[in-house]
């Protein structure tokens, strides 16, 4: 019994380390950028154009005017760098460990920003899905906007801001502070239902394996 308790405590502690800040406004783009560990490592050289692209001002004005995402006002995509640097930036900005974003991106696209999935509905590194989300063309043309949008919606799930999840079919009561429930919604659109558990298991495995550091990953 003591062993099971210790295992549960260790798992909870490990999960807590993947969330680096409490609820509230994100870091500024500049403050998040200051935390990025810069490197020339780029396993996906084909991402170069999207990695250097910032959304246009007109697009951002339209996005901020029309989006109903709780944290839309803070989504800018205002960063350039390597694919890993962008993942770091988005994670730090929204209060998560870069390891989490790296793992999710391996499950979604193996870090290929150009990937289009779900029959032409999901775009970019984190597979932002239209029409459930927005925002073409930036989710396809700007890696930083794609990651920034993902960070904002993940934070909204985690902070308990997406209360519609309690109004639709759900497997558990929706509430703030559930990291894996929040990660799973990205795959299923429901709280602890559908494909959530399988998706979360994949993310956890990629985290444990640190698959982005393996030769197979580096080879594309």
Structure report:
The structure is a single chain. It is built from twelve helices and three strands; from the N terminus they run H-H-H-H-H-H-E-E-E-H-H-H-H-H-H. With 220 residues, it is an all-alpha fold. The protein has a three-stranded antiparallel sheet with strand order 1-2-3. Helix 2 crosses helix 5 (83-94) and helix 8 crosses helix 10 (179-188). Residues 1-13 have low confidence and may be disordered.
Structural class: mainly alpha
**What coarse outline follows from CA principal-axis ratios?**
globular
Number of helices: 12
Number of strands: 3
Radius of gyration: 17 Å
| CATH architecture label | Orthogonal Bundle
| Count of discrete domains | 1
CATH class: Mainly Alpha
User: Taking strands numbered 1, 2, ... along the chain, how are they ordered across the largest sheet?
Assistant: 1-2-3
Helix content: 40-55%
Low-confidence region ranges: 1-13
Provide the fold topology.
Layout: H1 2-17, H2 29-35, H3 48-51, H4 57-66, H5 83-94, H6 98-109, E1 116-117, E2 122-123, E3 128-129, H7 138-141, H8 143-158, H9 164-167, H10 179-188, H11 196-209, H12 215-218
Antiparallel strand pairs: 1-2, 2-3
Helix pairs in contact: 2-5, 5-6, 5-8, 6-11, 8-10, 10-11
In short:
The protein is an all-alpha fold and 220 residues long. The protein has a single domain (45-214), classed as Orthogonal Bundle (Lysozyme), CATH 1.10.530.
